Amino acid sequence: MNNHNWTLDDIPDLIGKTIVVTGANTGLGFEAVKAFAQNGANVVMACRSVEKGEIARKQIIRLYPSSYIKVMELDLGDLKSIRRFAVTFRQSHAHLDVLLNNAALMMAPYSQTKDGFESQMGINHLGHFALTGILLDLLKKTSGSRVVNVSSLSHKQGEIDFDNLLFENGKDFSSMKAYGRSKLSNLLFTYELQRFFESKGINSMAVAAHPGIANTGKPTKADTKLWLKIYNNLFASIIQPATMGALPEIRASVDPAVKPGEYYGPGGVLELAGYPVLVRPKFTALDVEMAHKLWEVSEKLTSIKYH
Ligand SMILES: NC(=O)c1ccc[n+]([C@@H]2O[C@H](COP(=O)([O-])OP(=O)(O)OC[C@H]3O[C@@H](n4cnc5c(N)ncnc54)[C@H](OP(=O)(O)O)[C@@H]3O)[C@@H](O)[C@H]2O)c1
């Protein structure tokens, strides 16, 4: 089976499985919801905007009328919203098979979340750290459950600076630095979470994925400039579509052959595109001491305790 390309056709029957996808209204999250719903899962689209989520849900229902999809509000940049999501989710769900931490703010200028964290670290890492911790009891109760964190090739540019983890008042901030740090944090968190599961004898696993580069871009005001339109169209024509970019996170979420602590990405040149295969992160992502410290700092910042 070595030369087999893993595709949507390899997704097993997901009837009876409950899957939460963050950032599900667009891009890779939207593609993942489609794939899960098509195979019978009970999918919760955790979206910052319920309105956008509903529009996306209706599109999928049109394609797969018998699918079971629900939209729930979740703003990962607001710890109160994360707590509210968990309360509402628990009211109608007794188990959670897959938590796909897919949402992200990418390459954004300096801003802060409602809780005062730099936004990319706050949403991409701390938000998902808090969400996972709050839903831990349900993950524990669900034998064989998975937490899937979506990282990026940009984690390779990421560095952790514990003296200024959140770019306080914009100090040392660049959008690339903050994004890279958040994506490295996603990986450090994945490996530490897996060690946590093992040390507590919990039958859940933590895995990670990255999409390479995928065309999930939406037109912006700036795209009205002719040269940008041409550039964007050219770029879009050479990078892989969102349907391909979503495959690594879909595989990490549902392939029965996936093992704890694995990391999936595209198998093509430089992991930029292609069918999902096992990949390796940069060495720093495997640093146990750094991961442990990040975990402790994240618990403190979010006031979410894992136990
Ligand atoms: N596309 C790529 O080439 C690429 C490359 C490397 C890694 N990735 C990773 O792949 C994942 C998906 O990327 P994508 O390209 O599909 O991104 P996208 O199209 O920009 O979608 C991002 C999603 O995250 C949501 N989101 C942003 N801030 C949020 C918040 N505070 N609370 C809840 N949801 C929030 C967005 O909601 P709104 O629609 O409301 O803004 C949207 O649904 C991300 O983790 C990203 O880092 C993507």
Structure description:
With 307 residues, the protein is of the alpha/beta class. It has a single domain (8-302), classed as 3-Layer(aba) Sandwich (Rossmann fold). The chain has helices at residues 27-38, 50-63, 79-92, 119-134, 136-141, 175-200, 226-238, 242-245, 247-254, 288-302, and strands spanning 18-22, 42-47, 68-73, 98-101, 145-150, 204-209, 214-215, 240-241, 263-266, 276-278. Strands 3-2-1-4-5-6-9-10 form an 8-stranded mixed β-sheet, sandwiched between helices. It has a two-stranded parallel sheet with strand order 7-8. The protein is globular, with a radius of gyration of 18 Å. Residues 22-23, 25-29, 48-49, 52, 74-77, 102-106, 123, 150, 152, 210-211, 213-214, 216, 245 line the site of NADP nicotinamide-adenine-dinucleotide phosphate. NADP nicotinamide-adenine-dinucleotide phosphate binds next to helix 1.
SSE class: alpha/beta
Radius of gyration: 18 Å
For the record, the CATH architecture stands as: 3-Layer(aba) Sandwich
CATH superfamily: NAD(P)-binding Rossmann-like Domain
- Global shape: globular
Which features characterize this protein?
binds NADP nicotinamide-adenine-dinucleotide phosphate, two-stranded parallel ribbon, 10 helices, 307 residues
Concise summary:
The chain is 42% helix and 14% strand.
List the helices and strands and how they pair.
Elements: E1 18-22, H1 27-38, E2 42-47, H2 50-63, E3 68-73, H3 79-92, E4 98-101, H4 119-134, H5 136-141, E5 145-150, H6 175-200, E6 204-209, E7 214-215, H7 226-238, E8 240-241, H8 242-245, H9 247-254, E9 263-266, E10 276-278, H10 288-302
Parallel strand pairs: 1-2, 1-4, 2-3, 4-5, 5-6, 6-9, 7-8
Antiparallel strand pairs: 9-10
Helix pairs in contact: 3-4, 4-6, 4-10, 6-10
The structure holds NADP nicotinamide-adenine-dinucleotide phosphate.
